[in-house]
Amino acid sequence: LLAGPPAAAGAEPLAAHRERLGPLPELAGAGTAIAALVRASGLTGRGGGGFPVATKLAAVARRSGWPVVVVNGTESEPASRKDATLLAHRPHLVLDGAVAAAQAVGAGEVVVALHRGASGIAEAVARAGAERLRGEAREPSVTIAQLPPRYVAGESSALASWLEGGAARPRPGRPTSSDGIGGRPTLIQNVETLAHLALIVRRGAAWFRTAGSPAAPGSSLITLVGAGLAGASVLELTGPITLRAILAIRVPEPPRPAAVLLGGYGGAWVDAGRALDLPLTRDGLAAHGLSFGCGLVALLGPAACGLAETARLLAFLAGEGAQQCGPCWFGLPALAADAARLAAGRAGRRDVDRMRRRATAIAGRGGCHHPDGAVTLIRHALDAFADDVERHVRRGPCPGAGRPPTLAVPPSAGTSPWR
User: Fold this and answer.
1) Tens-digit pLDDT profile for residues 78-106
2) What does DSSP assign to residue 12?
3) Which of 16, 134, 356, 366 is positioned for an S-S bond with 371, CB 3.0–4.6 A?
4) Is 6 exposed, middle or buried, given 0-12, 13-18 or 19+ CB atoms closer than 10 A?
5) CB of 323 within 8 A of CB of 329?
6) What CA–CA distances, in Å, run from 411 to 236, 308, 317, 318, 324?
7) Could you tell me the pLDDT band of residue 158, with boundaries at 50, 70 and 90?
8) What DSSP assignment string belongs to 166-186?
């Protein structure tokens, strides 16, 4: 995915893209052929859910109507940069994947969905779309939609709701992605997923399976951020590798983190002694009860306070809830308040026990998966930072509690519109 001109060169022009990779092949019976390739490749969604792409294609293709393909480039995770990197530097690879997906389901329209404020990325996609209009190939029309900058606005059903004129809130009941815009069959796929599809159509399912692992084929992008690193780096992992090995390759003097956050702000804190040697693959992490998620790998420095960091993330997640169910209205704010008291050294053991009970009560009861991410975060934090919990309860906050945050927490969009 990241092969080609360096990032400093900007977006790869269409002519250079096609000279490097060749045009999309014209497949006989394109829809059926592409679907068969995807099924054989084992491609799964790279937005965090890991749902089989072949199953989504089949669900959309068998519905009647005028299908539409939506490229989900919202990338709501504040620290993640992988989708933005692809759209900014390899826009034609992503659009090729969208065209292939449109051929697979019979769609004549492609919508690229971004958050408002992503002006640089929107301009790169718009330029790429204009380049393709000047070409000879007949392709689906491409439009850009810019959604409210809400954390949950990029969830598939929220995105579909907004595109048909509603609020950018998840639809209760967790509908399938084939429930679409105005009743039309709708395929919603993440940016990285479609970039993979563009290469699978060119090079085949067997080629795709040469990367990754048998149970989780294909390369994967991660965003590596945190203490001891010079900004965020987007890396492509083509096979099983540990974080320790990545740091040894990338950093002259590898940092020694205290803990690692895996999967996103609704992911899991893992003690560094364990995290450094875990295999960074979807199936490898799943075997340890962890999720690859959006591919975020964030390092917490040894002088930082994991409880304070978690409290900031929980406050952000609580402010970004869809406010459509009890867990978002009451559960997450209460959990965030508990975490803030613990970080400040004002909580007792009963408060910690109450946090665990609240997390159990919230899990699986939200109108969407957003509350579950917050629950995952606090549950793993209480385990990974068990020594800090004891210290904060017995002796007050540690020195690291007042340090600047390691992870960026943008101002909550809680007062911004949903439309």
Assistant:
1) 999 999 999 999 999 999 999 999 999 99
2) P
3) 366
4) exposed
5) yes
6) 30, 17, 11, 12, 21
7) very high
8) S-SSPPTT---TTS-GGGS-E
- The answer to whether the CB of 201 falls within 8 A of the CB of 100 is yes
User: What does pLDDT average to over the chain?
Assistant: 92
Kindly list the strands in the beta sheet with 259-262, ordered across the sheet, starting from the edge strand earlier in the chain: 233-237, 220-226, 296-300, 259-262, 268-271
Q: Where are the alpha helices (DSSP H) in 294-385?
A: 306-319, 326, 332-343, 349-362, 370-384
The helix/strand/coil state of 133 is: helix
CB neighbour class for 395 (10 Å; exposed up to 12, middle 13-18, buried from 19): exposed
How far is the C-alpha of 287 from the C-alpha of 283, rounded, in Å? Answer: 6
| Interatomic CA distance for residues 88 and 21, integer angstroms | 18
- Alpha carbon distance, N-terminus to C-terminus of the chain: 33
Residue among 84, 88, 86, 65 nearest 75 (CA): 84
Beta carbons of 229 and 299 less than 8 angstroms apart: yes
Report the distance separating Cα 131 and Cα 135, nearest Å.
Answer: 7
Residue matched to tokens 């810019």:
146
Structure tokens at 410: 């943008």
Q: Output phi, psi for 212, to 5 deg.
A: 75, -140
CA dihedral 172, 177, 179, 180 (to 10 degrees): 110
- Label the pairing between strands 141-147 and 109-115: parallel
Q: What's the Cα-to-Cα distance from 272 to each of 162, 262, 398, rounded to whole Å?
A: 40, 11, 19
Residue 367 pLDDT level (bands cut at 50, 70, 90): confident
Residue 80 DSSP SS3: coil
What was the pLDDT predicted at 318? 94
Q: Which two tokens stand for residue 114?
A: 């971004």
Mean pLDDT across 220-239: 94
| CA-angle at 341, arms to 336 and 346, nearest 5° | 165
Neighbours of 341 (CB within 10 A): 17
Task: Please report, for residues 76, 160, 234, the alpha-carbon distance to residue 80 in angstroms, rounded to integers and kept in the order given.
Answer: 8, 22, 9
User: DSSP E strands: which ranges in 100-182?
Assistant: 109-115, 141-147
Residue 79 DSSP label: T
